[in-house]
Design brief:
alpha+beta, 4-stranded antiparallel β-sheet, 30% helix, 349 residues
Length: 349
Amino acid sequence: MKKILRNFPRLLLLFLLPLLASCGREPVYQSQSYMFGTLVDVTIYGESEARARELSAHVQRQFQHLHDALHAWQPGSELDRLNQAFAAGESAPVSPELAAMLADATRLSERSDGLFNPAVGHLIQVWGFQSDEFKPIKPDPQEIKKWVAANPQLRDIIIADGVARSSNPAVRLDLGGYAKGWALDDAARYLREQHVAGALVNIGGNIIAVGTRGDRPWRVGIQHPRGAGAVASLDLPDGWAIGTSGDYQRYFERDGQRYCHVIDPRSGEPTRGVQAVSILVPAAANAGTLSDAASKPIFIDHEHWREAARNMGMEYVMLIDAHGKIHLTAAMRQRLKLTDEHTQPDVVP
């Protein structure tokens, strides 16, 4: 039996859902768009409709800029031009923004012992995830072995004087597990510069809070990986971010098996044996970025998830294993409320 998941907005289940009560007369403005391969929602509280619309439009334009520049398979994008140069053993100009992203992503990759690895774009492509539609495919095992053996790493990229090159032609960048978080931090900085008292920015389930919703904090729910509702909810304080890596949004099924888009660079195979990992990141200049990138190595190395979380500096973690069992760090247990109050999670220090 084959199942195809088309990545259309009407079919998306967000990794995390803002729990927005009925707005009533509250000054809440929301705008939505579709970028980064997912649904984007910007909610602004406490501003006039005209100003909120202007602020939201600016954020959405910046998201569109990043989407266009960092598209991994769109011909002509900055990332595509860079990948073409790397494959040919040539150099190419790199914008200051992308250079900063690559430097930061390299640090995170090293911290994760290479489990977070945006350089494995060839493997992502082989599995069919560099596409707007995911079809059940069976890659050639030899091709997978070839790209794993090539061992592309972000540290292979050398950037100097605005020009980038790679010492390894197997490097193919795909920032799908990083760009959403970077965009969140960029949006939060802008909204704070504009003295916005309250905003919630959600890119496909990676969410960052700016200020509060009036006299109360923003509250979000964590999507159940196998259900239609939230498995848990929690308050998201000012500057905090939350993100989830899961096997339930970008995936296909073949012969009764689920293949998700999170590739284990050690095997070249989609990660299996875990449904979702959610992390809560305290306020920091890069909280949004961490909410996107830091969940990946925990998801991939789920059998040693607590150690992987420590390596990434993550204190607040929830993991849902292949059987639906919930595992929590003690710190995360104190922060969230499980929807099913009869659930008995496994709590670890």
